[in-house]
Amino acid sequence: MGNGTENREQWGSRLGFIMAAAGSAVGLGNIWRFPYVTGMNGGGAFVLCYVAIVFTIGVSVMLAEFVIGRSAGLNAVGSFRKLKGGAWPVVGWMGVIAGFIILSFYGVIAGWTIAYMIKSFTGLMTLAAEGKAGDAFGAFVSNPTQVVLYQVLFMVMTIWIVFKGVGEGIERYCKVMMPALFVILLILIVRSVTLPGAGKGLEFYLTPDFSKLTGASVFAALGQGFFSLSLGMGCMITYGSYLSKKEILPSAAITVTFLDTMVAFLAGFAIFPAVFAFGLEPAAGPGLTFITLPNVFAKMPGGMIFSFLFFLLLFFAALTSSVSLLEVCVAYFKDEMGWTREKASWLLGGIITALGIPSALSLGGHFPKIAGKDFLDVMDFISSNVLLPLGGIFIALFVGWVWLEGAKKEATNEGKAPFAWETAWVWIVRVVAPVAIAWIFVKGLKW
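The chain above was modelled as a monomer; its predicted structure follows.
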């Protein structure tokens, strides 16, 4: 068993780390999931609630993961073993397994984004203009060859970046993809808010109507915030382990959280004005992206280009996240099993791709259902409703109760770095976060 800390890879710069961590956090959850969850929960009031949760509970759990990772300088499992031992490495294991499972179906949906970039120029706009975007999507997910082909293509790209390493691969590509993502978002926002009738969408999105805020909405905001930040799965522990001791962790956690929330918030500006301008339904659920939005683009001048840019944006967001999910697994096998990065990347990436094939086939009805659910939904349920919340609860409890003095030392760089909100942080990880996440966990167990 190598502990790998002597010659451990490191981020080349603070910017590289921030872009990679923000890239991990910014994923399909921000651009695909956030707008439709907001649409289903009444708009503005939900957004305020979401922001409040992310900047209290979200940022606190993220900082907890950073201090664990940097202090131990190891993967998610090795970090718990080194800092405390006993049964604690199981928490890291849950993260590794969650990363494995999530990436298996994440690669499927991410593959759709590549298909839709191509389809933007090959007839999707014509079909959408005829009101057939839903049929086109149904035909696509029912075509086993296509969905598996695009899933494999996406996974090969993910494996390639991770195989290239922390500096040459993850950091280098995230430094290009994250700024590109912001630029594309801004282009789409300008187009969306200048459409005739866009004002109704802005009003829905920005005017809080607290009568629409129910217990279920608060729960949805809590769940969305937690998953959006890539918490509970060891990504931030792993990325934290490549940080130099000079980094100031509390400010890094705030910066990453801010960038993540910013992307989700901006995605709403790109989507709601356009959806309202064409009189479509904002609460369209997951179909908002692949069915409603092509209808929107088809009605715009230059719709092909805007459609292509939107799916390119989704692709970048998905790729920066999938890279962090694979890195959690690769770091474990490198540190604990002494595997080379090359072997870990290609072998694990291959296994995860194979595990994703049933998810790819299940939506078109080419794979048997499990207890009435599609295989992809089952994988999503196990990871998002069971493993991630449990991981988050135990990470918070570990830092708040078991290893608090060590965590404080690491967060303040041995007392040298400022940490204005230390007292608040301690109470959030001790009490607020575990209780709130336990609520997500219990509510989420309804099959």
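Residues 296 and 347 are 41 Å apart (CA to CA).
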